[in-house]
What does this fold into?
Amino acid sequence: MKTDFKLTRIACYLGYITQAIVINMAAVLFIVFHETYEVSYNQLGFLVFLAFVVQMAVLAVGAGHVDRLGYRFFAVFGHVAVAAGLVLVGVLPSTMDASYAGLLIAVAVYAVGGGLIEVAISPLVNALSGSAKSATMNFLHSFYCWGQVLTILGTTMFLQLAGRQMWAAIPMIWAAIPVINTVLFAKVALPDTLPERERMPVRSLFTSRTFVLIIVMILCAGAAETVIAQWSSLFAEEGLGYPKMVGDLLGPCLFAALMGVSRLLQALRKNQSRPETTLLYYAIGCVVCYVLIVAVKQPMIALLACAAFGFFVAIMWPGLLALNGLAFPSGGAASFGILAVFGTLGCAVGPWGAGIMADFYGLQSGLMVGLVFATLLAALLAVSKRKSI
It folds into this structure.
């Protein structure tokens, strides 16, 4: 009898909505932390850095054990940790003498959960995807975008209606989603992981130039994406002078919506056996958007370029994961975990670097860090296309 994995896929999609909450909620609250607790730009950047470094550490440890312990272990405990961390975000800053230390603790806890979720879901969906890996990965990652829109819109609307003094209720509300998904992942049917005798050894992956190239590209993609995702809300309000509601809707919220549209369009495309060409064209679009953001003095153009960037960067992470699945079909969950480690490293370094630059030279100059990574990504994709990896 054939197993029905429909509910499993729904749980995976909710898992990526949970990831969107983990990664984006704090960024929308940057202005609250900055004004209420006098947290500097550098410290705000370090919050992002910490979250991604913790995720990266969890990914590094967990990547080699998913095939042995199974998907359920990581998915269930990941959602429990996210729910706990979100509750702590709302509690610790106002109850501890050192508010920033409370934020650091809470972020570290939910970042552990984010790492556990990430290490399980991509290889799980890859195992269910058959030959349509690029389309399936883009469809999965589109739910991250819808989760990002939901997080930004919901958080911004709550602040607008209830007032910034009520911000602590926001993470408590969002914690309901990982709680629900904990129950789902405890019950859904899951496929078997790849047997050890069929898996490619991790050492062999690192001796492959193709795999190393994909590693560097996903690092650049993660850095370029999260610089805009994490800083565009604050950039729109303080750098461009827009009210928070307008800035969030036309900046990070439209950014996320266009990411979702882009990934859905890619999921609907046929004949995507080798996605390098599409990735290169979209990477060039990323560079153009960054140039408009950091060089153009017209605020509306800069803000809309932030949003348009979402359309072009959307397919980078899922496209590179799909490329890995095609190039290394016996890589197992470990290959996806390794790529997630380095992609997360980029997500950590990019926003923190932008925060350091912003403290010295201003927010718009800080975003130039993302331009460097986007340019390097486009150059490496040009190399990979020429070599037909």
